[in-house]
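chain below, 63 aa
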Amino acid sequence: MAGFLRDADPGRGLGVVDLDGDTVRLTPGLVRLPHPVLLDELEELREFAVELGVEQRAQQLFR
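prediction:
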């Protein structure tokens, strides 16, 4: 599932906003964060990020 991480809570799991704009709760045993170029929905995610006003808060180590 591709989306944007909204929050993480030990009791409730992960809150992820999907491409439909819904917040979905997940309690996976393993979370993988793929490189963006590996995502099939990359262009849709970029457009949705602009709509939501998503900002990257973690600094990238290298470009």
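The chain has a mean pLDDT of 86. The chain has one domain: 4-52.
thats it, cya
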